[in-house]
Amino acid sequence: MSAKAVVIGGGIGGLTAATALSRAGVDAVVFERRDDLRKINAGAGMVLWHNAVRALARIGLAEHLDPTSTPLEYAEWQTWRGRRLARWDVGRMGRTLDAPALGIRRVNLHRALAAPVASALRLGMECVDFDHDGDGVSARFACGHVERGDVLIGADGINSVVRSKRFGRSKPRYAGYALWFGIVEPGLVSVPPQTFREVAGPGARFFLFPVGEGRYYWSAVLNAPEGGHDPEDGAKPRLLEAYRGWPEPVEALLRATDDATIFRRDIVDRDPVEAWGEGRMTLLGDAAHPITPNLGQGAAQAIEDAVVLAECLRDADDLSAALRLYEARRERRTASFVRRARRIGDMGRWENPVACWIRHQIMRIVFPTVAWRQHEKDMAYEL
Question: Has residue 357 been placed in a domain?
Answer without folding.
Answer: yes
